[in-house]
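Progress report, Aim 2. The chain analyzed during this reporting quarter is listed below.
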Amino acid sequence: MARWLLGLRLLAIGAVVVTALILQSLSEEMLPLSPLFAVAGWGFALSLVWLILWLAGLEPAVHGLLQLLGDVVLVTAIVYFTGGAWSPFAFLLLAPVLLAALMYGLKGALALASAAFLAYLAMVQLVVSRVLPPPASISALASPRPPSLTLQLGLTAVGFASVALLASYLAHSLQQAERSLQEEREAAARALALTADVLRSVESGVLACDLKGRVLLANPAASSITGQPQPLEGKKLSEVLPLAGVSWETILDRVAKGFPQRLEGELPPSNRPVGCTVTPLASDNGAVLGAVVHFRDLTEVQEAARKEKLKERMVAAGEMAAGIAHEIRNPLASISGAAQVLANRSTLTEEERRLLRIVVSESKRLSNIIESFLNYARPPEPHWGPCNIGSVLEETLDLFTHSSELGPNHRILRRIVRHEKPVVADEQQLRQAFFNLARNAIQAMPGGGTLTVEAFPDGAFYVVRFADEGEGMDPERIHEIFQPFKAFRKGGTGLGLAVVYSIVSEHGGEVKVESQPGRGSVFTLSIPMREV
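Predicted structure tokens for the chain:
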């Protein structure tokens, strides 16, 4: 504050000099302005001294106090030259007192008020005692009478003290108001920063818009989900979230009436499913100013629902298969045994014997299917123990390479990295899962091709990937591939991949499928590596 006090003083002195010159130009007589110009010169000189002291690095508090005391001397000189005790400019001595109240509080204001009054008293006393000549403006007047002078001095002292107290109170109130305002600003800034951090941290999209659908605020997740570059502010809601079959004008009209809206739609061009909740944005008095749109990508939610539905269907199908197999198994054995006995009779023709062999063969095939049903519906209890998944995979592939299902044009390429420490798993179930996946891949390549098997540790999981060069699958078939009894090949039971899904789920893992028609399929197993 002491720094800008220099500029304020120079401005005030300059204004006084300019005003005096203007008055002189308007007056026909020569005004006694020489003393005023002398005081102005002293003011400029003192300002130069204060500037030098400020550049020298004088303590700001001391620097400001020296300036105010110097101002008291200058103003007292102005009062003397303009009438002394009867000068109309005596009130100018209150200016340093007011500044002291702002800069130093109550004590500083009272101290400077005392200094100003003492300077004023000393000036009056020197004039009364004829040490200083009376000012030219009162030279024709009689000397002031002591009672009148005493009253003037008393009123001046009371005025200085009152102004000091009032200015200190006002300065203190102003400082408190500034502190309160600063605290409120800091609290508001912290609240805004916290709100911004929350919006940045939320994984779902958040948009705020007016009732015309123009976006006012958007978090980074909104840009990520919509695939549009930031900033989204200023764009129309229909441009940011062009959901298929959704009219944002209709939605905002309903929200403007105070009715929240829930909706789902597909976001082009990827047709990503998005769920939205649109709520009114209201002021303190309840007036609806706009809307808040909270939306998120439903791909994972729908995938989780699909998996849960698949799990329920697999449980239901398993229970049904167990019941059917139990009821069919014994009669089927009787049919097969009776057919074998009849086939041994000598009175049968060759055609009759051939038909009976077909009955026996189909009975055995049906028995195997029922056995598969039972294995799926009532899987054996897992036998947990130390296991190296990579070793189990290699042994299973070694066994599968000798299978009659492999043709001369089939090739198995291995890229297996074993994990260092054994993990808890069921070796037999993992063998069955790996064997079923290898068999499924070879069946997808009836004319030949390469099956690439990769396996490697990835954090807390051991990843096993089977990639074939077969016919591939469309998205609809991918969604049904793990459902039991969904056979997509002639002669299949539709249980091989269902068993794989069940085994991996039992181990707490996950199965993912990537496929395109004509470009093969990739089955990826993520199996948790639980330490022994």
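Residues 38 and 77 are 10 Å apart (CA to CA). The two ends are 73 Å apart (CA to CA). These observations will guide the mutagenesis work planned for the next reporting period.
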